[in-house]
Amino acid sequence: MAINRLLTLGAVVALVLLAFGQCFADLPRGILERAERGDCDAQSYLGHLYLAGKGVERDFARARYWYQRVIDQPGADAKIIAHANLVLGVLYNSGKGGKQCHKTAVKCFQHAAEQGYTDAHISIGLMYAQGLGVKKDYRMALHWWQLAEQKGHPTAAGYVKELKEKMASQG
Q: What is the pLDDT of residues 18-29, one digit of tens each?
């Protein structure tokens, strides 16, 4: 009886170790070391992996950590920084992976918008429309959504139309 339990326990431990090892099997060799040494591409990639749960267990706090490292990295590519700011804005806005802070989310979205991320334009518009991290201001929301519409964002026109109708009905 004890031997059967021991064998069963051994099998469970083996499966857990196999599964644990498999969690990191998809990580490129040396990616963590490169990220820790300041490679912003590796940091961004790790942020993405933790955000999506690809090759590692999904962990919003670690995603937030690695994306923050990207934007703090001197000399990092502007597009990589903009993407990191967009993701950080979403994480701060939702509170996933740490403290929720709408003001920080708005700042992150603004940095991403400066680099042309139309999703950031939409997000800033939503923050103004809802008064999250900024004073509620439909005109500012409309401004950001119109910018996104001009740049071809697929849902911006709907936001613009809906807000114009709302503003017209309120006088």
A: 333 334 446 778
Tokens 């109708």: give the residue: 165
Residue 1 DSSP symbol: -
Looking at 38-137, list the stretches that DSSP marks H as alpha helix, in order from N- to C-terminal side: 40-52, 60-72, 78-94, 102-114, 118-130
pLDDT tens track for 93-128: 999 999 999 999 999 999 999 999 999 999 999 999
Residue 122 and residue 119: Cα distance in Å, rounded?
5
Residue whose C-alpha is closest to residue 55's, from 16, 15, 27, 21: 27
Whole-model pTM: value is 0.81
Sign of CA dihedral 74, 78, 82, 84: negative
How many angstroms separate the first and last alpha carbons of the chain? 80
pLDDT for residue 12: 36
Burial class (CB in 10 A: 0-12, 13-18, 19+), 50: buried
Burial class of residue 128, CB neighbours in 10 A (0-12, 13-18, 19+):
buried
Structure tokens at 142: 């409309």
Contact 80, 51 (CB under 8 A): no
> In this model, does residue 6 exceed pLDDT 90?
no
